[in-house]
Fold this sequence. Notes:
By secondary structure, the chain is an all-beta fold. It has strands spanning about 5, 10, 15-20, 20-25, 30, 35, 45, 50, 55, 55-70, 75-85, 85-90, 95, 100-115, 120-125, 130, 140. Strands 3, 4, 6, 10, 14, 16 and 17 form a 7-stranded antiparallel β-sheet that branches. Strands 5, 7, 8, 11, 12, 13 and 15 form a 7-stranded antiparallel β-sheet that branches.
Amino acid sequence: MHLFVRGGQLFLPSGMLKTTPTVIVSTSVAKVTGWVVDGAYPGSSISSDGLVANGGKSGATVAASCVVSNGSAGSRSVTLSLRLNGSVIATGSAQAVGAFSSATAGVSTSTTVANGDVLELWAIGTGTLTIASDAASYVRIT
Length: 142
């Protein structure tokens, strides 16, 4: 476990893992739901499917990765974005997902977080796709 103290403020890395599949469609960007606390990050907490910052840190890395599956005959793509307290702070590149296959999409950036900030993952696809419950599907603040 890593413990950082800056300016008298404690910061602990936090994380959450995907436990329930989420179906996304091309009509609009949607919040990715179905998360649990990642036991590798003690002290992590979740609020309304958002990861809660456990302390403040400037230059924190916020990142997400998701395994996305396509059950259709045509190729699709997915784009992930991170929102901190409701505002978009990062948008990943579109990730192609071949017909009847899976791919891993990701997004990350460096930002300042304050204790209690909430980090959410949002997604949009070019067709119907499923974000899988998988150990490789996570959101982290480090």
